[in-house]
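Convert to structure. Protein one:
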Amino acid sequence: MEKRQSKVAVTLTNRKNERQDKNVKKVTALETKDLHVYYGSNLALKNISMPIYKNQVTAFIGPSGCGKSTYLRSLNRMNDEIQGCRVEGSIFYKDFNINQSSVNVFEIRKNIGMVFQRPNPFAKSIFDNVAFGPKQHGEKNKKVLQEIVEKSLRKAALWDEVKDRLNKSALALSGGQQQRLCIARAIAMEPDVLLLDEPASALDPISTSKIEELIMELKKDYTVVIVTHNMQQAARISDYTAFFYMGDLIEYGETRNIFTNPQQKQTEDYVSGNFG
């Protein structure tokens, strides 16, 4: 147990994004209040109230089945696609409650993009994967589409690797490249927020490292929320961490405090490896 705690402490000490100006006012990008999520009669998330801060990386940790992915999907109404799922409470984006039946969920997802656990590129060219969203929203100018594709691939740290084969199938890319392509596809819609559901869990260590470096770079332009089973990863790349357990939000705060000075015994037990 001591060895594991020591590794996390070293990770936190060496984090590139560790230094923060404490005088800078935190701006809320998203916020939930009294959020409950049901799958049929099963209450999966219980009364979650939490802000997510702009241009920060927020990590959700906790054992499998604790509700962290359910909460992530709530933030851009992806749970609407699950039969029998019901979401109660408020989800505020730009001071507007997006958890209302009158809301256009496609517009919400344009501003709050999502990348899933396993890379899911379309069976199209690399170019058409990235251009897909803008085309669907009416962009027809080829020059504009070319600019969007290049800009998005550059931001996803993929341009130099694929610029000479944009017309080749995206399915020919490696797993790590496919995941970065999916991030580029989300970026092409110019979102404010990127939701990442365990984006590196199916990748090798080298590809995982590239994704982590990318996430730390992306927070300059986006608010990033990531679900991860890897506590070392949360310690390396996140500014804030939320610990979920059995549908409850046990503790939420700056990552350094969650890992080195947790306020709840359950949090301490989890990050020290006593369970989970």
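Protein two, convert as well:
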Amino acid sequence: MTGPLAGIRVADFSRVLAGPYATMILAELGADVVKVEHPEHGDDTRAWGPPYAGGEAAYYLAVNRGKRSVALDVKHPSGREIAQRLCADADVVIENFRPGVAERLGVGHESVRQANPGVVYCSIIGFPGGDRPGFDATIQAESGYMHITGETPSKVGVAITDVLAGLNAAVAILGALHRRATRGQGERVEVSLIGSALSGLVNVAQSALVSGEEALAYGNAHPTVVPYQTFEAADGRFVVAVGNDRLFRALCAAIGREDLGTDARFRTNAGRVRERDALIAELAAVFPTRPVDEWIALLGTAGVPAGKIRGVLDAIRTADGATLQVRHPTAGPLELVRTGFTLESVPADRDIVAPPLLGQHTHELLAELGVTDDRIALLQREGVIHQAVHQARPH
């Protein structure tokens, strides 16, 4: 492994999205992530299809590359003992069980810390202070995201609260690893979906606090920046994002309406917010005179941010270097979306480990933990572990 986390082992008991997204980021940074899964069904997202590639659900494939999978029944006494051995050997342990479950399984924070005082232990939960389950749709409802999205309450089209929680978990774990490296101390990290969602509301939340008024839904517009929304062109819709007064004047010049840039009502952003309806009506009369691509080119030349509304596949294909390719054991060549960052120390063309099959590395990992071949065979006969058996596709 290469990268700043090379040599760091992560025992990953998480599943679905927030935890696996966090550990995929750690794997991208060079960590050895050991994904612990139930030997029969594995991570829930393995069944979240179609679509599938090589028998694996696209959802699962999205957030599990760079990891090794050990299929282990942690409820079985022998499985529990192996899980505890893995935690004792790990630098980071991450879980998103319901509150109390990790403790019952023998991999809770206190028991892990006793065996491994320097461990960074991360728990991802839905809501603090209770055992209420958290799923993205309910968190989006409870956090205000649905209230401000769309023109009637709508959820964001991706599980955004899980993604935010995964990013928060990765950042907190990195901070804790730095503390461990510099002070020799472990750390307890707790990340909640509701807390991640609320902190992700940023300016919308702060505006509500400052004004004392409930936030409103602005659809494809912006509550405090105008014009910053979609417009109808001759052949479709596109977005204009004018973030300051200079850009507004550049927009007016580009569309041949310099008069709007000098109009006292619209000179400042505050004035444009107050006179939103009047200004948008003027702009909406101009944009249908040209097709989207012409407007994008014209506004781009003027330095005005504008964007074509694309489908997901179109967006991926249009962006430069948005994907990477791995060789999957059953799917063959598999295209995956890159993370949103690069590091100089991590070569972009390095070999990426494909998302593992269920239990693909069970025997390998158990051998590393000192489990003998005879015991591995016994555990497999008893159903405590599972080792993936597959026929690799030819190159």
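The chain has two domains: 9-201+321-386, 228-309. The chain is about 40% helix and 15% strand.
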